[in-house]
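seq:
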Amino acid sequence: MAPGSATRTAFVILVLAACATGAALRMLSQAPADEPVAMTTSGIVRVRGGQSLVVLIEKNGSRRLAVPVTHAEAALIDDALRGGTGVGAAAVEALGGRVLRASIDDAVSLRRFRGHLSLGSGAGEVRVEASAGEAISLALQAGAAIVAARELLDEAGVSPDELRGEPAHQVRSENGPSEVLGI
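struct:
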């Protein structure tokens, strides 16, 4: 092997390794379009007409998602936010399972979001349909993750800047009612 040949081979291998590392890092840093977005629970607010909304905040971002819930779901979520544990998560555990995550999937109507719970048992995972409020409540009770569909967050999520500044009635009149919440 010629003296320059070994150096050239080492250089080519180094360049290929750098390209492969760069491509892998780029793939890891960009979430796929259908990948759910991790959320945290900010709290419960009540809007005109008494409707309760759970405010979720994007973990690695700043968007908020207001999820309509029933009064009963709001009470369970409020209790879970204060550290209370409910019978739902305890029942899942008593049956040998665990709550893995709550997913908020889409809006069925102006006042109802659809979600599901992912429950684990051993190495298996079961997906159970639930209202968004039920799913959030059980996830909070169990200390499990909460995620939202990226498409739903893109459509119904709002930034802190959109919440500041002008009064809500002015923003609503300029932009029209929110397609999802109508508030």
